[in-house]
Amino acid sequence: MTVRELAALPEFEAVCLPDGEREILGGYAGDLLSWVMGRASEGDAWVTIMSNVNIVAVSTLADPACIVLSEGVAPDGDTLERAKEQGINILTTSLDTFDACVRIASAL
Amino acid sequence: MTDKVNFHFDIDGDNFTSAGEASVRIKKLLREMGFSPDTIRRVSVAMYEGEINMVIHANGGSADVDVYGDRIEIILADKGPGIPDIDLAMQEGYSTAPDNIRSLGFGAGMGLPNMKRYTDDMRIESALGVGTTIYMTVKT
Ligand SMILES: Nc1ncnc2c1ncn2[C@@H]1O[C@H](COP(=O)(O)OP(=O)(O)O)[C@@H](O)[C@H]1O
Ligand SMILES: [Mg+2]
Q1: What CATH number has the domain spanning B5-139?
Q2: Is the complex ipTM more than 0.85?
């Protein structure tokens, strides 16, 4: 499934989609950035409630297919700006982190 | 082969917004130089953790990445407070990061362990009140 296809599901919304054709290969959930850096795999959908600009640098390095902000969290303004510059996909959802993961897993 | 290519970065100590920029730059440079995704990931993740540590714990510093024929060396140097107990600091979960830093997702105490895990060799030199220098090597 591509990031664009995930974003098209009713529970998700794309707030930054510079690379919508990117394929989602799996998922990782977590808010501690060092854990994400160490454990997330390339191509994962990364589900988090962290919305500050540092999630963009982490994504550039850990290379998930997209960030999914759960629990109705919105990205900070400079996060969106930086994500556009760096080509990082960001989706949002009002689902909590568990339900977001379940929804993504069942769609994969 | 003794020839090396050096990349030098100054790491701004009070700018959380730009933290990680040097690592992101290195990732792009190494990709252009044709290194494998695994090597690039290891170097850039290890460097990111070190870069963040210099911003959080040492008020900035410098990063040098030396690319040799068979390895990449990363040298992170700061003039921060130093690390009083390196063995303790290396333990997973140990962190002195303050709450405002934790609320950004840092301070998991996994930075130094990640740096060790992602590199083939890591050495820390630290003196209280003088600073910290971390040497890491990734074989290519
Ligand atoms: N460059 C540094 N200067 C001074 N202290 C440091 C430095 N890097 C790490 N430390 C100390 O080592 C601890 C563990 O570092 P780390 O594993 O990266 O965890 P974290 O950064 O999440 O606290 C830090 O909390 C800090 O006390
Ligand atoms: Mg750290």
Answers
A1: 3.30.565.10
A2: yes
